Amino acid sequence: MMNIKQAQEIIVSIVPLVQTEILRPENVGNPITIIRILTAYIEKMIAQEREEELGKALHLMEYMYEKGEWRLQNAVENIFVFSLDGILNTCPESRRGKVTGKIPIGIYTAYVNQIYRSGS
Questions:
Q1: Residues 18/12, Cβ–Cβ less than 8 Å
Q2: What is the pTM of this model?
Q3: Closest by alpha carbon to 39, among 85, 106, 6?
Q4: Each residue of 78-114: pLDDT tens digit?
Q5: For a Cys-Cys bond, which of 14, 62, 92, 108 suits 103, CB 3.0-4.6 Å?
Q6: Distance between CA 11 and CA 5 in Å, rounded?
Q7: DSSP class per residue in 34-72
Q8: Nearest CA-CA partner of 40 in 18, 60, 23, 68
Q9: Over the range 35-68, which residues count as b (16 or more CB within 10 Å of their CB) and which as e?
Q10: From CA 52, how far away is CA 99, in angstroms rounded?
């Protein structure tokens, strides 16, 4: 299981643009804040049409969801997966399919399950 400290190190190594924010003393060790920062980065990469960086960030989110300790998994599900519908709706319709296609299967399955649960 990956702990929060390891997750922070991996995020900073793969997405150096968020290093300053991730390593702020008030953010260190807080899985909710860490996932919010990564979610904001993903939204920014979608808006800027930076497909390669988007793919890396999405796979990183999936990795934390699959390999992270329960607090990381919960943060991914409650922050990122919950906001995914809104994120996708901000995409221009012409790009939505392409962005959706980049979402790793584990995250996408959690997203579909969340939609299904909320619709019941």
A1: yes
A2: 0.93
A3: 85
A4: 999 999 999 999 898 999 999 999 999 999 999 999 8
A5: 108
A6: 10
A7: HHHHHHHHHHHHHHTT-HHHHHHHHHHHHHHHHHB-HHH
A8: 18
A9: bbbbbebbbebbeeeeeebbeebbebbbbbbeeb
A10: 11
Residue 70 has pLDDT above 80, yes or no: yes
| Distance between CA atoms of residues 49 and 46, nearest Å | 5
What are the tokens at 50?
A: 């930076």
Beta-bridge partners for 68: 2
Q: Quick one: pLDDT at residue 119?
A: 61
79 is written with which tokens?
């922050």
- How much is the pLDDT for 118? 67
Look up residue 2 and give its DSSP letter: B
Does the CA dihedral 47-111-39-68 come out positive or negative? Answer: negative
The pair of three-digit structure tokens given for residue 90, joined into one six-digit string? 């901000």
* Pairwise CA distance, residues 101 & 36, whole Å: 22
